[in-house]
Amino acid sequence: MKEWLGWAADGAHSCRIAASVVRSLDRMCRDAGDLETGGVLVGRYAEDAMVAYVTEATPPPADSQRGRTWFARGVRGLRELLAIRWRARDRIHYVGEWHFHPTDAIEPSAVDFAQMKTIALAGEYRCAEPILVIVGRRIGRGIRPMRVFVCPRGEPSKEVLPTPAAGGVRPLA
């Protein structure tokens, strides 16, 4: 599995997801079976804040709750984990959320976007342009679809579409 790279149609926002993160997302989704799951995305932004580099996707915190058609990400241990990442690894930090829809439809819900708008405004996240990654069920033995959105503070959410270098589709494998 290779790195995922995409741009929003406005050309002002881009996202790079490391190959190791793509593999990790695939594994966590596979392990979740028929239940939704999710976690946070960790990484950094380019100096101009237009490119988000995702270097880690965390598993769901222990206090997360989930079902077949819903997921509520917990918070247990996240503050400590993010503090460690900030100090230890090139000052990486929270850049967004990911979750898994164990269906063929990987449409973000109104709740998903409302959560991202809340995060963009919340001072404790310090993330004015959070990334939302929605991962779908693997299609046969092939591609696990993935959709990526940037949710800038004060602006509508924008889908980040994969570049041809990312396979030209929404691949996760």
Structure in words:
With 173 residues, the protein is α+β, with helices and mostly antiparallel strands. The chain has one domain: 3-Layer(aba) Sandwich (Cytidine Deaminase, domain 2). The chain has helices spanning 19-32, 78-88, 110-121, and strands spanning 4-8, 14-17, 37-45, 51-57, 65-66, 71-72, 93-100, 131-135, 146-150, 158-162. The chain is globular and about 40 Å long. The model is unreliable at 167-173 (pLDDT under 50).
Q: Secondary-structure map with pairings?
A:
Layout: E1 4-8, E2 14-17, H1 19-32, E3 37-45, E4 51-57, E5 65-66, E6 71-72, H2 78-88, E7 93-100, H3 110-121, E8 131-135, E9 146-150, E10 158-162
Parallel strand pairs: 2-4, 7-8
Antiparallel strand pairs: 1-2, 1-10, 3-4, 3-7, 5-6, 8-9, 9-10
Q: What series of H and E elements makes up the topology?
A: EEHEEEEHEHEEE
CATH homologous superfamily heading:
Cytidine Deaminase, domain 2
Q: Taking Cα atoms only, what radius of gyration do you get, to the nearest Å? A: 15 Å
Strand content: 25-35%
User: What would you call the shape?
Assistant: globular
Return the CATH class. Alpha Beta
Give a count of the beta strands, DSSP E runs of length 2 or more.
10
Number of domains: 1
How many helices? The count is: 3
Question: For the residues shown, what is the average pLDDT?
Answer: 87
Give the % helix.
10-25%
**Assembly level:** single chain
Q: Order of strands side by side in the largest beta sheet?
A: 1-2-4-3-7-8-9-10
Low-confidence stretches: 167-173
